[in-house]
Amino acid sequence: MDRKKIIEDGLLERYLLGELPENLCSELEQLLQNDSSLKEMYSQMESDFEQLAMDNAIPPPSDVKTSLKEQINRMSKGEQQGDPKIRSMVTSKNYSKNFLVAASLAALLAVSSFWLYSRWQQAEASLKLVQQQTTSLQERVVILESSVEESENSFRKINNPNVIPLLLKGNEISPQSKAIAFVNHAEKEVILNPQGLSPLDQDHDYQMWADVDGEMINMGIIPKNNMLVALKYIDDAASINITIEPLGGSEHPTVERLISSVVL
Amino acid sequence: MATALTDIQLIDALRNGDKSALYQLYDRYSGALYGVIIRMCRDEALAKDLLQESFIKIWQKIASYDADKGKFYTWSYRITKNTTLNALRKSRNLIQNEDLSVYDNKSIEEPKPDYTQLNGAIKNLEPHHQKAIDLVYFQGLTHKEAHLEMAVPLGTFKSYIKQALKKIREGYGPDVVLLLIFMLQYG
Fold first, then answer.
1. Is B19 on the interface with A (CB under 8 A)?
2. pTM (2 d.p.)
3. Are residues B66 and B2 in the same domain?
């Protein structure tokens, strides 16, 4: 920092107004002590500054001085008991008091608002979760209900007194195969439990046929992996038969691949 | 010289706990300081409180005043300005008025009476010089804030201040006190 810079940069003006940072202040004060003409320049600036302030002075209302005196007296007493600073804060009249009250209220409001907001957010999240769970449970109930209905239906069908259960045992082509047909002549229904049939490759299906007067009539393809299968009831059938057919079934049975047959 | 001496005497007395010395300093400087406060805050009730608060600080901090470093008025002006700026900052934070700066508020709430009226040598300045001095001396803005307020570069603003001070200096004429010091030292 040199003299020229101080003058050109307006550092004296900023020092006078209390704008300079601490480190620059002490540096400038040092320089002012050692440079009488700079000091003189500064003193003149201060005098003009003061003169300007005096020219623009506004007399304060007289009650300020009265209040100041009261305050100073209170503080003098307080100082003897210690802690004058706190006293001055407390007694800096309505302005500070109102400020404190307003600030406390604002803080309280902010804290409680935040608390309520976070509670609300939590409640919202919980509600959403509960709604999701409810929806999922409802879906499961529907699935279970239909499943139970299906089971009941099947159970009712095979447990009917009019039903004749027939065992279809595999021949030499498929000795392990076994299937049970539930035939209800009264209600003209045929239900098959194909669980015991030996698994087929992907290119073949089992198909069921009714023998009516020597003619094999299609009763339907037996779907894989089903517990109970409803098939077409054919009137006047003498026997029912199962053949292995290409995937998707055939119009006419591949008799050489007949694996089981039962007389009705 | 007599005035300065009296100031120093009063300050010495104040340092010894003489309350009446504070009240005499109050009689001498409260008008000048109140003029600054009211121009900064434009609120009479607040300005009264801040003037009182400033003099309490003067009372409390008088031990740290160093007459070698400058005049009592300059020192008390800095205390007053800081006290006022702090209060304005707090009130601004409290109402959370982010869009309107303290200075914007001033222009909106036109006070009664009109404290913007300036007197003395400043009245003879050109308007932009007058504005520059008003912003830093009476409205408490820093150079950096004030140049933005006037929308001129900082360097230009500094030159406004320098030119303005020069004209004020010419307006007030040679300071008798300083002339005397000068004569004593170099005469």
1. yes
2. 0.53
3. yes
